[in-house]
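Dear V.,

Thank you for sending over the compound details. I've combined the ligand you provided, 2-acetamido-2-deoxy-beta-D-glucopyranose, with the protein sequence from our construct and run the structure prediction for the complex. I'm sharing the raw inputs here so there's no ambiguity about protonation or stereochemistry in the SMILES, which I know was a concern on your side last time.
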Amino acid sequence: MRLLLQFLWLWASLMNIASATIAEPEPEEWQDITKVIVANITSLEDRSTRQAEEYSRLQDRLARSASWNVNHPRHRLLTALHGFSRYKERNLAEVKRWRNLYKHVPKAQKTVVERIVGYTRKLNTVEHLFEENDKIASEIVRYGLDYYNISQAELDEFVAEAEKEKKVADRTSVVQAMKHFVRDWSEEGFIERRDAFPCILGYLARMDRSEERPLRVLVPGAGAGRLGYEIDALGAFEVTLNEWSAYMNLVHRYATQGPAPNSLAYHPYIDWWSHHATTADMLRAVTFPDWIPSTSRVVMVEGDFTTVFSGEDSDSGTYDVIVTLFFIDTARNIMSYLETIHRLLKPGGMWMNLGPLLYGTGPWLQLSLDEIVLLSEAVGFEFEVDEADRGCGNPTPGVGGLDGKVRSLYVPYGQNARGLSRNAYDAQFWRARRV
Ligand SMILES: *[C@@H]1O[C@H](CO)[C@@H](O)[C@H](O)[C@H]1NC(C)=O
Ligand SMILES: *[C@@H]1O[C@H](CO)[C@@H](O)[C@H](O)[C@H]1NC(C)=O
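Below is the predicted structure of the protein with 2-acetamido-2-deoxy-beta-D-glucopyranose bound, written out as structure tokens.
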């Protein structure tokens, strides 16, 4: 039965891809068939007890309550679904804007531009590719509604209400979240993972553990989830992920639902025309997922890191390891992050961090590295100095001598592998034990 369903599922995915690439409308009944298969696979794919419990907590958090506002988890989820459901509309509006700008070019020049590079054709192609991408965005919505048990009617009503209040679907958050198909779930994104991941995975792989006594690992700020599944694949770890962004969670849920490897295609670079070496590169598709992880063990806890693990079901003092990757600089209040990491670890538990100090808009504290080290020590961490970390960067130089507590390495990040620009960061790596 299960094999049959998996076969059906595979076939369904392939058909979906087929229909996505040849630009034909999907028959209604076909969507229904896929939906049933998805529902069955999810329930049959032996969701573990831990997953079932977390799903029930998730549903409790998502339930509408007296305090209904933009910060309510269901409101944030519906806002993200609104964003994905308007992918085409929002992006085609942008193409239209580009077309209008092009109209300013004098006719004689336009003739040359058209004859030599066919700029109008490029605009047309991009428009078409946004329509292709929209099929993925629609699938994300469909899968999301199914997964979170939200009806299309509820979403429609939410969207109508929001648009009546002139709230525009968030194009940037959607586009940024979908770029994680590349970073986390494609072969092309390996360039972004290959330097950072081995530092963390290499250390974890050497930790003493067994299937009978797995180590509990928490990954806050898990994004689209890749690192967590790679940790799980090392064996004998019980992995919990945490992510606040509903956009990211939708992308993560969709990317790991189990389509065939590299069966989905997405054009990640058409929304931003800067730094492209060639137009062909800009237009190219990236296939995903390059890897189908086992999803039956990893648990994703959605919500704010500093609050979702507190309260009744508090996980205080229960984790052996907490891994933060490109995370700590996202804090509004980094002190709360430090305290939460400390509280959740077992005494003697390990905090492993890798990432830059690139503060966004409006953090309450913008600390330098030495200040983070001092404050972490004050909160109750002891940094490990280990020459065997040689594979992970070099000791961070700096006034006051960080005494080998922190290492720095270069991590290509957010990089279009064939583009002209290189957004890369010097990331810091450290391990510190809860005293
Ligand atoms: C598959 O899903 C359908 C609809 O949700 C349900 O009626 C059916 O019982 C499920 N089959 C199995 C084997 O779970
Ligand atoms: C889905 O939501 C409906 C109400 O909208 C509820 O009756 C049903 O029990 C929910 N299903 C699950 C699996 O939570």
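A first observation: The chain has a mean pLDDT of 88.

Warm regards,
I. M.
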